[in-house]
From TrEMBL:
Residue stretches making up the ABC transmembrane type-1 domain: 56-263
Subunit relationships: The complex is composed of two ATP-binding proteins (CysA), two transmembrane proteins (CysT and CysW) and a solute-binding protein (CysP).
Protein's job: Part of the ABC transporter complex CysAWTP (TC 3.A.1.6.1) involved in sulfate/thiosulfate import. Probably responsible for the translocation of the substrate across the membrane.
Name used for this protein in its record: Sulfate ABC transporter permease subunit CysW
MF term (GO), any: ABC-type sulfate transporter activity
InterPro entries attached to this UniProt entry: CysW_permease, MetI-like, MetI-like_sf, Sulph_transpt2
Location (main, coarse): membrane
């Protein structure tokens, strides 16, 4: 059976490029155009608004903590499910992947059910003057949940391929767990780890659904960048909304492009 003709290949390539341009490139360009409709100065001034700066700061702080926690947790989870065989391993893998399949809105509702004023632990938290829902801790918990799988899922195939021989040899030579992980396992998996970190970063920065449920949408306090965009757009502040959206898009694009560049260098070095 022969392969596709040269003309068929050309049509397929053209359709692919048109789809990418229409679905991915064109919307980003439209956001940039709308952000600069009133001029660069107006867009810049909108980003210097106190509520906008608060949203940017909160987004970056939550993203930083989520990336650190989920990097450590993802490495540990990937190590456990790839280096050991135990009862319940398949269930653990399914739990690791759960945030990918569950709607972020449902995740946010779960946190409200647990920590909201009418939630299971709401009375206890209220008596001890601890606020999780409609505050930064709730936003962090929601972000941690939706971004947990990325480091683990990028590491698991590579760690599975590595096997256990090198780690067992290191243990026999007297190396501890952390030394073995740092000196034996992670050097070969560093590009996969970095890819997972960048994916986690991009997801955390752009998260809307779960954060929207638990944040309370309080301008200047619990609004992240995506939530602040919604507030501005609903308030008919289109220039400010699109300026923030353009900044968010640029950050996300830079993260993804950095990941693609590093993956290209890794494949080139491996070949």
């Amino acid at each position: 059976m022969g392969g596709p003709s040269r003309g068929g290949n050309a049509v397929l390539v053209a359709c692919t490029y048109l789809t990418v341009l229409a679905v991915l490139v064109l919307p980003v360009l439209l956001v940039m155009v709308e952000a600069l409709r009133a001029g660069l100065g107006a867009a810049w001034r909108s980003l210097l608004d106190p509520d906008a700066l608060s949203a940017i700061r909160l987004t970056l702080e939550v993203t930083l903590v989520a990336v650190i926690v989920n990097t450590v947790g993802g490495v540990m989870a990937a190590w456990l499910v790839t280096k050991y065989r135990f009862r319940g391993r398949a269930a653990l893998v399914a739990l690791i992947e759960l945030p990918i399949s569950v709607s972020p809105v449902i995740a946010g509702l779960v946190w409200l059910l647990l920590f909201g004023r009418q939630g299971w632990w709401g009375d206890w938290l209220d008596r001890h003057h601890i606020q999780i829902a409609f505050a930064t801790p709730g936003i962090l918990l929601a972000t941690l949940f939706v971004t947990f799988p990325y480091v683990a899922r990028t590491l698991m195939p590579l760690m599975e391929q590595q096997g256990r021989e090198a780690e067992e040899a290191a243990f026999l030579l007297g190396a501890g767990f952390w030394r073995t992980l740092w000196r034996v396992t992670l050097p070969d998996a560093r590009w996969a780890l970095l890819s997972g970190i960048l994916l986690t970063t991009a997801r955390a920065i752009g998260e809307f659904g779960a954060v929207s449920v638990v944040s309370g949408h309080i301008p200047g306090l619990t609004e992240t960048m995506p939530l602040h965009i919604e507030t501005l757009y609903n308030g008919y502040q289109t220039v400010a909304a699109f300026a923030m959206a353009a900044l968010l898009a640029l950050i996300a694009m830079a993260t993804v492009l950095l990941r693609s560049f590093l993956e290209h260098d890794f494949r080139k070095a491996s070949s």
